[in-house]
């Protein structure tokens, strides 16, 4: 096991956004939820390829001015989160490390074994509390990816509005009108 090259200690208070800059750039995803640090190991190639395909499909259908970003930081009320994919409104600033929730139209999380609980149980209420209008959770199944699509209701929680499977090309209205066909996406 490699030894750290410097002495590192966690803060003696709840974790804050500025503490993230002291962490190593090792490919892990560092997020803060309710003052606690959550670390997710780097994602595998299959996860990254699927995220790239989804991002490319969204960007290809995006109206002028919209941004589709991989692993953009999101500053939520009690958290600093890093969704796999973030769709930013045309009015969003394009500099800085952390996006304000009002600039976000959609977040997408692609499940992996190390993120399943976060993507299903922990992150959706945080995204809802932040006011993110749309949330997609993607499962990588044996026959291809399945997208579970959720919409914010009364600014409080998400309701599922549909699923999109590998053999289900569909016309969607969120975050803008588009046709998605995941049949060619990696499994």
UniProtKB/TrEMBL annotation:
UniProt keywords, alphabetically: Endonuclease, Hydrolase, Nuclease
Origin organism lineage: Bacteria, Bacillati, Actinomycetota, Actinomycetes, Micromonosporales
Cited Pfam families: Uma2 (PF05685)
Protein name, UniProt field: Uma2 family endonuclease
Ranges for domain Putative restriction endonuclease: 19-175
Comp. bias (Basic and acidic residues): 1-16
Disordered: annotated span: 1-26
InterPro entries for this protein: Nuclease_put_TT1808, Restrct_endonuc-II-like, Uma2
Superkingdom per UniProt: Bacteria
Gene3D superfamilies (UniProt xref): tt1808, chain A
Keyword Zinc: no
Keyword match Nuclease: yes
Source species: Micromonospora maritima
A molecular function (GO) term: endonuclease activity
